[in-house]
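Long-time lurker, first post. I've been practising inverse folding by hand and with some scripts of my own, and I keep getting stuck on stretches where the structure tokens seem ambiguous. Below is the full token string for one chain I'm working on. Before anyone asks, I'm not after the true native sequence, just a reasonable design that respects the backbone. If someone could post their per-position residues I'd love to compare against what I wrote down in my notebook.
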């Protein structure tokens, strides 16, 4: 029987978001306990809340929105690899001891997965251009990270966002890989079909093969 791992952060008002971004909020428009026929809520939040897919429109002026993204990269075989790096740039050498035969998608597990939802991991490790080029040479379809960004926290020009896009590699951010053993799984992490925006939350799930 396949085993499922939910690798999504829980979207709730306590969830920390990127500093300056909109925190998650919801309000009740109707309530059963007030005599309405249903409970009805309205949500207010950034598309980068919790576990999410960046759309290229986030960092490219006329880039695709979530509704236009190919779905195939978000479904399929994924290597989950824990690395010991605490800070600084992640390079191919961080994976030197790992068998990556047949890798199609790479999900990087760091200490950030252990951080609670109500805390913010500012000094997180991050992919480097060297790593992105290394993945592109291997025809990787998707990079997933448990950090809030595929670039350094204080980056203004977002070089890895752009290099991933230039190489046709989609990416997921703010995964939660706590408790997931290293190995190869089936990933299912579809963005919502939303037009005109810069990203989408996903319900990211791993299924054992």
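-- Answer (accepted) --
I ran through it position by position. Result:
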């Amino acid at each position: 029987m396949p085993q499922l791992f939910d690798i999504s952060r829980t979207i709730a008002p306590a969830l920390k978001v990127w500093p300056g971004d909109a925190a998650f909020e919801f309000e009740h428009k109707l309530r059963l306990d007030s005599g309405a026929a249903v409970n009805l809520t309205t949500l207010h939040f950034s598309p980068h809340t919790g576990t999410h897919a960046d759309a290229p429109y986030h960092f490219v002026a006329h880039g695709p929105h979530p509704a236009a993204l190919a779905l195939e990269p978000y479904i399929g075989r994924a290597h989950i690899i824990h690395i010991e790096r605490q800070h600084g740039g992640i390079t191919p050498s961080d994976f030197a001891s790992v068998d990556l035969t047949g890798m199609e998608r790479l999900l990087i597990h760091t200490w950030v997965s252990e951080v609670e939802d109500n805390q913010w991991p500012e000094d997180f490790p991050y992919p480097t251009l060297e790593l992105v080029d290394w993945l592109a040479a291997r025809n990787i379809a998707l990079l997933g990270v448990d950090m809030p960004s595929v670039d350094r926290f204080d980056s203004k020009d977002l070089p890895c966002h752009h290099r991933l896009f230039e190489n046709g590699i989609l990416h997921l951010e703010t995964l939660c890989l706590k408790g997931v053993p290293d190995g190869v799984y089936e990933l299912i992490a579809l963005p919502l079909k939303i037009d005109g925006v810069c990203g989408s939350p996903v319900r990211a799930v791993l299924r054992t093969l």
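A couple of notes from the structure itself: The chain has a mean pLDDT of 97. The chain has one domain: 4-9+51-208. Happy to go over any region you disagree with.
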